[in-house]
Structure formats: structure tokens, C-alpha cells
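Students often ask why inverse folding is considered easier than folding. One informal answer: many sequences map to the same fold, so there is more than one right answer. In these notes we will look at a single instance of the problem. The structure comes first.
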């Protein structure tokens, strides 16, 4: 596996790092998150479950939509992440948000308890995504919707695609095996739809949404990548020092193709799956 080990998500340092990136993540995923909430029919007065909520960006967006008569429960395996989410909710005087430590494979919640369930950029990292979706289906009300955002295919996301190709080649690191959790595990055509159908959903649909990545320059894009706590740093740590420097130089050289008069802009894409109970 090339993702952050589960135990690391619980560390305060990981939560602090993740919190520090909220503004940049909002720039990248904000529009797509609004679409996810639309597809899940999150509206005024809704009861919403946010699975793998992390530090709560999608939770807070949902809380704004449901208003004071609604309710949003942020669930995650990391108490540190949820503490950060709760703190932001307090600062924004949101009284309709609750946090609870919980594993997506085993949601300790009543059946038919929520109007909608959302899950942003996490489903592909679960060891058993169909099982997690089955749990989400169980806790949503009949007729309710579950919407999950994942990364599209790696070739649609060259910001990371270039990195993976270069590092794997230099380190002779094999690609993840089919079914192995990693960032792009559900990006292949039909993969996300398949796990939704296996989880028993009706009216399944998948929507591709662009997420361009913008930086002042390719050098700034590299700096952001170097600060990543994801599988980017885990993969790079497998190289020796000389190959690591070679890799960064080659990655930056290839990323320069996305520089223009207005700075750096690389295309990107996420998929949003939605199904009805």
C-alpha cells in the first residue's frame, strides 16, 4: 500500500498539517464539493453524515446548507482530525455539527438515521470500499442518497501522474495491485459505479468534475508536493538520496509544461458517485 498508514492519521502532527492545507484544498475541491452536496440532495433541515470527514471542510459546507434546523455528524478514525473540525465549527458558531470517532466499515449508528451521506476523497483509501458504502447505505433513510468523491484516473491528474511515473521508474516500484487501496484505486472507468452497485444502491450515476491545480510557478507546485503528508512522501522515501534529487529535478522539468503567462495550471479530475437507497 502507498497511502498514509492508518495509525498516522491519528497523530496530532498529521492533523495540524492537514488543517494548514484547508485553504488550498478549498480552492481545488470547493466547486466539486458543492456538486457532491447537490447530488446528495443536502438542503435546509437535512440530517447529514460526513464519513472520513477529516478536519471538516465538507462538514462545514454541509452545515451551512442544512441551517440551524439541520444536523451534520462528522465521522473519522482520527480523533485529532475531528478535534480540529470541532474547533473550526466552534469558531464559526455552528451549533449543528457533532463529531464522532468511527470506522467507515462499522458505523455505530442506527439504520435509516440520515437524509444524506457524503464522503470526500477517502473511499478509494478504504480496504473494503463496497463494505463501507454498504454501511453508508444502511444508515441513510429509504430514498436518501449517498455521494462520494474520489480521484479520477491517474492520467487525468498529471500533477500526481508525473510524480508517480518518475518515482516508480527510478525506484523500480511496482504499481499498486488491483483492489489495493491508494489515491487512484477507483479512478478507472466503471470502478466507482461497480462498488456502488455491489453495495446495493439504485439509480447509480458517476459525474466527472474538473479540479485544476494552480500555483504561481512549477517551482511552487514542487514545494507544495514536497510538503505533502500523503503517499507522495511515503513513495519518495523509498528512493536513495541521489535518486530522490534526480526525481525532484525530473518532476519539476516535466511540470514546467503547465506554466504559462498566468502561472502554473495543471488539469485534474475527480469523480462523484451517487446512489439511492
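Output (designed amino acids):
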Amino acid at each position: 500500500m502507498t497511502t498514509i498508514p492508518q495509525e498516522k492519521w491519528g497523530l496530532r502532527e498529521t492533523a495540524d498539517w492537514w488543517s494548514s492545507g484547508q485553504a488550498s484544498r478549498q480552492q481545488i475541491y470547493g466547486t466539486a464539493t458543492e456538486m457532491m452536496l447537490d447530488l446528495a440532495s443536502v438542503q435546509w433541515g437535512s440530517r447529514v453524515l460526513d464519513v472520513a470527514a477529516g478536519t471538516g471542510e465538507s462538514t462545514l459546507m454541509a452545515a451551512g446548507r442544512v441551517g440551524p434546523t439541520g444536523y451534520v455528524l462528522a465521522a473519522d478514525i482520527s480523533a485529532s482530525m475531528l478535534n480540529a473540525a470541532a474547533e473550526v465549527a466552534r469558531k464559526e458558531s455552528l451549533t449543528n455539527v457533532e463529531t464522532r470517532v468511527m470506522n467507515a466499515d462499522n458505523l455505530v449508528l442506527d439504520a435509516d438515521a440520515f437524509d444524506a451521506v457524503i464522503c470526500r476523497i477517502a473511499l478509494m483509501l478504504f480496504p473494503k470500499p463496497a463494505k463501507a458504502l454498504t454501511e453508508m447505505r444502511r444508515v441513510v433513510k429509504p430514498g436518501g442518497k449517498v455521494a462520494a468523491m474520489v480521484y479520477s484516473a491517474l492520467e487525468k491528474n498529471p500533477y500526481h501522474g508525473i510524480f508517480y511515473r518518475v518515482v516508480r521508474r527510478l525506484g523500480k516500484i511496482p504499481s499498486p495491485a488491483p483492489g489495493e487501496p491508494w489515491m487512484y484505486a477507483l479512478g478507472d472507468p466503471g470502478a466507482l459505479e461497480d462498488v456502488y452497485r455491489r453495495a446495493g444502491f439504485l439509480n447509480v450515476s458517476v459525474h466527472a468534475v474538473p479540479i485544476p491545480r494552480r500555483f504561481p510557478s512549477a517551482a511552487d507546485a514542487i514545494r507544495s508536493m514536497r510538503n505533502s503528508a500523503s503517499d507522495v512522501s511515503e513513495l519518495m522515501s523509498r528512493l536513495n538520496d541521489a535518486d530522490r534529487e534526480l526525481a525532484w529535478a525530473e518532476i519539476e522539468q516535466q511540470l514546467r509544461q503547465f506554466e504559462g503567462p498566468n502561472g502554473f495550471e495543471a488539469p485534474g479530475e475527480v469523480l462523484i458517485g451517487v446512489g439511492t437507497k
